[in-house]
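Write out this protein's structure.
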Amino acid sequence: MLQLLLMNIEDPQDKLDFEEIYRKYKDATFQRALKLLNYNYEDAEDAFQNAWEQISRNLDNIRAREEKAISTYIMITVEYKAIDIARDNCNWRRNAKCLIVDKSEYISDDVIYTICAKDNQKKVRDIINGMNKKYKDVFILKYLHKLKVKDIANTLGITTNTVRKRIEKAKIILAENFKPEDLTND
């Protein structure tokens, strides 16, 4: 698979960088996909391949990041691709448990935008207004004002890690108020 991915990268230095990242994270990403997809080897392979295709297309975006941020980006990408495979392979609306993810796992920005894009604006506004101020503030700055985590941290005088945790908690609060069918683009 690595050779196929490298064929799509033109720059020789990009190929070397990608190959290094791939070799470093390939085992962990495949294991994560296996776990998320109930150890279904074929589905895990699909999620793994889809994730690495996306990572190869976004090499410029991840190259400048710190090592921990690269690792997080790669693992989240695999998780999102596993969710996509799970949605394709099971009736997501009736059986959201086909994927082993609890509510503390990642809720993608796509899910948040899907919730907000549907005819739920009043409900979304009420939920946001009912949130604890610390979650409400970071959510509004992230999704309405489109600030980056670092800028939110500077604005509020808190760490970027605290911002990330509050954003995740706010996303969970919002998502918990909707049915599984509200969390898809269909």
